[in-house]
Amino acid sequence: MHSVQAEHHGHAGKTCAFVFAIWPGRLAVKLWMGIREWCGDSAYERYLQAPRTNSEKSRLLTPAEFYVERVNRRYSRPNRCC
Amino acid sequence: MALVGAGALGGIAFHRGEPLNATWFVVATACCYLVAYRFYSAFIAARLLTLDDTRATPSERHDDGRDFVPTNKWILFGHHFAAIAGPGPLVGPTLAAQFGYLPGTLWLIAGAVFAGCVQDFIILFCSIRRDGKTLGEIAREEVSQRGGFIAQLAVLAIMVILLGVVALVIVNALKSSPWATFTLAATIPIALLLGLYLRFLRPGRVLEASFIGVALVLFVVVAGQWVAESPSWAHVFTLSGVTLAFALIAYGFAASALPVWLLLAPRDYLSAFIKAGAIFSLAAGILLVRPQVLMPPLTRFIDGSGPVFAGKIFPFCFITIACGAISGFHSLISSGTTPKMILRESHARFIGYGAMLMESFVGVMAMIAACAMTPGVYFAINSPASIVGATSDAAASTISSWGYPLRAQTMTDLARSVGEQTLLNRAGGAPSLAVGMAQIFSSTIGGPRLLSIWYHFAIMFEALFILTVLDAGTRVGRFMVQELGGRVWKPFARTAWWPGILISSALIVGAWGYFLYQGVVDPLGGINSLWPLFGISNQLLAAVALVVATTILLKMKRIRWIWLTLIPMAWLIIITMTASYQKIFDPNPRLGFLSYANALAAQIAAGKIPAAKIADTQRVIFNQRLDAAVTAVLAAMIIVLIIEALLQWYRILSSDPKSVLHETAYVATRWPQDFSGALYTATVAEPDAPAMEG
Known about the structure:
The complex is a heterodimer. Chain A is an all-alpha fold. Chain A contains four helices and no strands. Chain A has helices at residues 2-39, 43-49, 54-58, 63-74. The N and C termini of chain A lie far apart (68 Å). Chain B contains 28 helices and two strands. A two-stranded antiparallel ribbon of chain B has the order 1-2. The chains are: A mainly alpha, B mainly alpha. Chains A and B meet through helix 1, helix 2 and helix 4 of A and helix 4, helix 8, helix 9, helix 10 and helix 13 of B.
């Protein structure tokens, strides 16, 4: 009986920890990464991950070059509406 | 949910007498949109487009980490929504509130569900199936060469008119307002500072730069009050409409010609954060405050005699509310960046259809904010001096005689409480929306004491992202001019060639600057002429997009469901052509461009215009005739496109072998089913694996 109760309390404790600590923590991390990706903060990291040929690998852009190239490309086509 | 939505919609439509609570609007809109998304968009996805998640999208086949970037659907939804949501869904419903709350609200809901969302969704799908090609390229391939050229011209025309009219909205919001002018002017050095930070100090660290920028912008909103209270500084920032117009023209030229990282990009980052914050705050404010809607369901101005703009409820309600219901400009976004980043075909439903529903919801919120004001105050702010008079007494007397009681003291008190000298004759929608927003915000936080801060925050929010549309649009317009000029003389198309940059920037700024200037000096307030012209050109572009979509669906043998695009297309053509005809030929001088020009010419001939004003009047006459010519050209373009499309449809239906579908070949996706995004699930994507070619 005692062990069943302890198991029950242990399970409930894990559930509480998930609901009050782990789940909000994971949500906050996901939200933060989502905001970073939405605003373009992680664009360079994503660029480094993109598949590329060997010749492209040998001349990777620096963060500053990538930023300038990215905004130049982005604002050369309609990207803000009425 | 359908029953709740129908009940709330019925409440809005049939309620008479006592003011209606805004909660009815929120419930009706939310229920209609959820039901439409659940059933109508699912029907389009399954039956009409047969979206296929086993098919590799352009972002998978061409993943380069630059243009083609596989992106989580929620993040891409945010990108797409930020791109399509501009000043249109805020200004259009505010202006259309002159007909009462009912027609505008119904069109916002029905237009979005059956036309706007359908257009955005289908064009996004078409572009995904064509490696992210633009609307012009798709039109050239699927309709005809001439159709593609017309689409390109339509884009350029709408760009010029759009920039002119949104610039006019800013001018009308800022004129004689040192607080608002200082706040907006201060965002320019802030943007430059952020540009240098992002380029040299911390390259690409957009988030931290934006936090700094937003904090600085909020500070200058408050600091604007100190400027307005200082006689010497207030004098510097108290500018007339014409001065502001020239300042905006100079700004547009600089933003187009300067490196994009220096001014344009950082301003856009600032604008995106403030836009998202302000829209969510407005939604939360409406839910918390639940304001009463004081505007009647229908006003006497449905007969076409409205003071804000002339024209009957049909077709001008549908022309005025452009972007909140359907916007041709969205088809450029749907065939621009979004299709290159989409992960799965099925996401097109959530992003294309869903984001437009959200934009339409913003339009409904703007309608609520405008209609929560006393009707008399609404008309006093939005009507030109030539109709209601330039003083509070004259405006109160005229507006009260229309059946909307207004005391002169009310306008004086309201202006003082928001920190302005006057709120009269601020046509354009921005100031009245700012008053509505400020009243909702101050009912939540701060009370009447903070009304002036909230008003100027709302003005800054509107002006900031209008300015972003202005500089981003000017730059894109410059590229279009260079591309068109390059067909005549090749070096002109080189985007890094300085003479080309300067000449094309001057041409595009000169074009929208001319419309802006004519709006500023127009005795009828400018918005009366220019907003309908913008609405016509925007709906014309939507008709172009729906013609292209219908052609593609016919080629896909979806004849049974063709009415899904055919009916909104026919509706748009009917309202565009009717509005064009009335704007050109209507005998009422307030409505018809030619009759207004002729009436002024007759006054000059009769000697009724003082000698000192003859030159100005002749300029107004020329402008009215120019507007008539522009409207006629827009209408002619849609007629030519319809003829081209009808010929193409005949060829398709008669099984002409030349009418082929130009989709890219099927390639199976290599991504696992649970792959949901780029960065934080990148380990799943095997970054070094070569992309599959189509």
